[in-house]
Amino acid sequence: MSERKNPFGNDVMPPSPDRSASKSLKPFFCPRSVAVIGASRNRTHIGYRLLESLQEGRFAGTIIPVNPQATEIAGLPVFPSLKAIPGPVDLAIIAVPPNAVLAVIEDCAAKQIPAAILITAGFAETGTLGISLEQQLREKVRQHGIRLIGPNCFGLMNLDPAVRLNATYTPIVPPTGRVAIASESGGLGLAVVTAASRLNLGLSSFVSVGNHADITVNDLLEYWEQDQATDVILLYLETVVDPQRFRQIAERVGKKKPIVALKAGRTEAGQSAAGSHTAALATNDRAVDALFTQCGVIRARTLEEFLALATGLSAQRIPAGRHVGILTNSGGPGVLCADSCAAEGLTVSELSKQTQSALASFLPPTAALRNPVDVIGFATEDQHAQAVETMLKTDEIDALIIVHVSVRAKDNDPVAAGITGGISTARQATGLNKPVYICWMAEGDLERAFTVEGETIPTYPHPEIPARIISQAVVYDSWRRQPAGQAPKYADADLSKAKSICAKALSERGGGWLTAEESHALLTAMKLPLVQGSVATSAEEAVKLACKIGFPVAVKLASHQILHKTEIGAVHLNLADEQAVRDAFEAIRSRLAQDHKLNAMEGVLIQPMLSGGVEVMVGMTRDPLFGPLLAFGLGGIHIEILGDVQFRLAPLTNHDAAEMIRGIKGYRLLQGYRGQPAADVRAIEEVLLRLSRLVEEIPDISELDLNPIFALPEGEGCKIVDARIRVGKSSLAV
Fold it and tell me: Which CATH fold topology does 21-313 show?
């Protein structure tokens, strides 16, 4: 088992105990007895509030306060220590000062308590001393085989009616449902739990992971994978612990249950300067996006969207397609909703004449019938019911969005009754649960809940929200249904030679950019399609090479010290004769002499000129947490100007490579544009896959750009024209 980086320090975390999450985490969710160490008589202290939450939540098991200075708290008998408790204890909730925690863990071990929730703060989040204390804590719980949630956490809830466990310090208990939540922020977790009742969002369980000294989100994903009470998983993340393990687990779990993540830290603040196009564009957030895309995690952009996705995915089935019907009583909000649908890649098609005729038979003459369907502001309860029923029965749409703007407060009740009545009638008539989403824009009545025979209809305050939910759900469903991708090994690649080239460069010069000849040899070892070319160290040698290659040629500075050759005039193209080649060589030599950089000139690279094709680029930079991050976009200067680039993490599968290419806005150029032939996309995919294999096998490759690559017409492959490769000793844990 590989070692893992401690996210709070530079030390390496020891491997997690090889214990099944479904078994080792069960005492947290289904304890028969809970001991609260640090229980307090002071109603303002967390130790009292924990007892209060357990009691008010009507915990089905035994609550055992532990406090050496008390005999009774909140009507419960108190024990002076854990060892004084006569029977077994399944779960310990610890709320003592940080300097007392290690001793309490020893007491838990002596009592053979399998699980502990450490509420106490004052660990890695506080700095150097806290990091040291947390490391001691981690070592101690693993030494004794105790599973730990925390420290610095808000606690845990299991809403199962047979358990009723509220092991947090809030008395608020959300409704029971089928959504599980893990939060790396206690405050945000509390906000979600508080909002759940207002949003009619039912939870199966909630966990605040705190500093994840032992149990991480990865462990919880594995537990919820097997949890029959959970259908949807929500994650609030501030870091991604062990991204490689997260990817493996999330991809497996996501095939069964949707995972929605809200990841903090989207900005590029603090981005370091980099030498390649790829590194200049890559950010930690792009790596997060790549990770989530590859393992099917639905990423929410805001807290509002996070909660909206939770209600939408848990309450309604995933739409069968992208065709959306919109029913509204106000044209403006209906149009906003339609615009949002179009922006999200959904289709709001005109309804058939048959459906329009059916709607016209009971709606006012001024109603708009095409889609969005506008029933006008004073449509009756019965008209709403019939309109909803008619649209749900048609097979022309995959989902229905209902947008209501309150005209008069007294109309809200009959409109709501009409909506629920129409849904119920359609459900009974068709037996189909076509998804329905309501935008309820009724000031003073915004928290109205819609249920139809036990089915929750998700309700939102703005007309743009349902479009995002439907789009994300459809994309997720498409990912879930695709077969597993494959990462080719490429037996024809000479990885041992590639490794030796990097190792030799490191031993001779240390970290830095490879020479043109080293880069050429490295890519040749991987059987990557390079343009024919050689390095000349004199003008006459350059002429000989040009004659051998055939005119016209390109002459470029060969230097591992000077990266941006175009900016100093060190690239000469379309040279048609020997004299032009001599002149180019001397011009490059003179330009470097002016800047006193002749020692940076290894010679010039002579290449044939390519015609036709589309310029693209492929690159890689090694993220310190996520590992090799690969990039694809249009080549030349377009990559930095347009920022039209797709990122994925190695190892790439064939699906990843295909999606990267098809995901850029410039993909139309590769399909054939205005009479130009379609490019050989499969050849580009193979370049991506071979590059992925290379950087996965050789961690000393830290940065790489292949730019430009000429994507030639279909069947003719592609050619790498220029390559920059940086090596440096990898600091990643393996």
Answer: Rossmann fold (3.40.50)
